[in-house]
Each structure stands twice: as structure tokens, then as C-alpha cells.
């Protein structure tokens, strides 16, 4: 039977932590232009790369997950910035042309 997903990524994070999983949360803290997700949107990631939620509608989730795994490992939070006008534009980009800033921290 397929796993059922919650509409609330933070609730999923709480459930995962209750199961003993290491978890990080990525939160959109600032947007410019036509960013696809509003400030306050969340993506939660566990140490096995499972994730729930979205910070960009799929544009930068892969890069955020990779950084979140590092945050889980080190415990050091990171501020990430993505957009068409920075060095990450060739690695990841927002198809809408906006820019976002995402804060990633370990929970628990």
C-alpha cells in the first residue's frame, strides 16, 4: 500500500522524529519576483533523503535536499539563495525567473 502524505510537512517532520529519524527543515524566508512558493513554505528531509513539502515547486528541491543532508550530518544551519542572477543559475534555476532564500536547519 502506498505511503500516505500529509498536507503539513511540519507534521510529517514530527512523525519522523518520533520514529527516531534525523530530520531537517527548509523554510522559504525571502522571495523576489515571481518565486513559485511563498515565504513560510516548508520542505522536510530525513537522513535517508525522504522528503515532504516544497520550497520551489520542484525547481531547486534537489539542491536543497543535498544541503539538508549536510545540515543533518553537521548540525550547522545554512542559508541558501537561488535565482537566475547568481552562480547557482547553471546548476539549478527557478523557471519563473524569481529568486528565493531558504533557511535549512536540523530539528531535534
Structure description:
The longest helix is centred in the middle third of the chain and has 14 residues, at 61-74. The protein has two helices and five strands. Strands 3-2-1-5-4 form a five-stranded antiparallel beta sheet. It is of the alpha+beta class. It has helices spanning 9-18, 61-74, and strands at residues 23-32, 42-46, 51-53, 78-83, 99-107. A hairpin with a 4-residue loop joins strand 2 (42-46) and strand 3 (51-53). It has one domain.
Beta strands, count: 5
Strand order of the largest sheet: 3-2-1-5-4
Structural class: alpha+beta
Series of H and E elements? HEEEHEE
The best one-word shape is globular
Count of folded domains: 1
Q: Main β-sheet, in a few words? A: 5 strands, antiparallel
Estimated radius of gyration = 13 Å
Which consecutive residue ranges, at least 5 long each, have pLDDT under 50?
Answer: 1-5
Our count of helices gives: 2
Compute the average pLDDT: 85
Strand content: 25-35%
Domain XdhC- CoxI: 16-83
Protein name: XdhC family protein
Pfam families: XdhC_CoxI (PF02625)
Amino acid at each position: 500500500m502506498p505511503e500516505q502524505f500529509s498536507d503539513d510537512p511540519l507534521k510529517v517532520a514530527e512523525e519522523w522524529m518520533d520514529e527516531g529519524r534525523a530530520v531537517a527543515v527548509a523554510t522559504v524566508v525571502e522571495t523576489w519576483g515571481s518565486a513559485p512558493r511563498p515565504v513560510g513554505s516548508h520542505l522536510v528531509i530525513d537522513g535517508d533523503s525522504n522528503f515532504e513539502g516544497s520550497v520551489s515547486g520542484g525547481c531547486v528541491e534537489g539542491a536543497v535536499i543535498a544541503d539538508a543532508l549536510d545540515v543533518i550530518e553537521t548540525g550547522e544551519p545554512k542559508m541558501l539563495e537561488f535565482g537566475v542572477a547568481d552562480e547557482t543559475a547553471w546548476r539549478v534555476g527557478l523557471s519563473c525567473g524569481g529568486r528565493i532564500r531558504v533557511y535549512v536547519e536540523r530539528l531535534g
